[in-house]
Write a structure and sequence with these properties.
Length: about 270
Amino acid sequence: MTSVRAGTAANRGPRDVDLHASLTRPEADARLIAAQRRLLQLRLCNAGLLDPEVLGPPVIVVVEGWDASGKGGSIRRLAWSFDPRHVRVTSTVAPTERERRHHFLWRFAPLIPGWGGMTIFDRSWYGRLLVERVERFIDDVEAARSIRHIVAFERGLVEEGAVVIKLWLEISDGEQLRRFEARADDPLKRWKLTEDDWRNRERRAAYEPMADEMLASTSTEDAPWDVIAAEHKRFARVAVLETVAARMAAGMRRSGVAPPAPQVVDEDD
């Protein structure tokens, strides 16, 4: 995984990660279980369920990336770590007519968790800088203004104590096509593909510079992007969970909440 910072070197794009990174199944399974246990431990602590006197900061996980990059599978494994009563997973769709009458961030405000809470965003306000920009729903002036608003929005959340974790799942053009074709050939997965998915794939060349600019301009000290090499699904799923656990523990410390020491859980528990 790579943490993206604003001001990325000119000879290295913000999406440049080692797409050859992989794990064997036994190693991936062991690390996935360990990461899920650690996340459960952190979540229980943060929610005040291990110590009623301790309530941790709001945790916001934003998952973005290419279509078929494994966002859904990674989110499912992330969510499996938690009691579903304590974590909200929300999938962002195109704004409604009513929502378009407001500032583009307005519709996300009710989804932001309070202290002790956690929300995982399957896509997010960053659609403003990707699909809305590529489809020319907004122009470059609006895009630049939206970048400033997003950075300020996230900075405000962090200043109020929230932990903002942002993940971009990166796959190559060839791997994306392979996954699209595999879905199209599988009757049980064909439903995942729409005409818009194929259309967006054909416009990947237009999306790439927009994604690069988005990652570079909105990755800040308060809320950095972590780019996950997702060419190999096992590696990506482990990387997502381990990154969230590390960022969550660090954010708890910033808020004055000491995360519990990792515990080894008996296999029979």
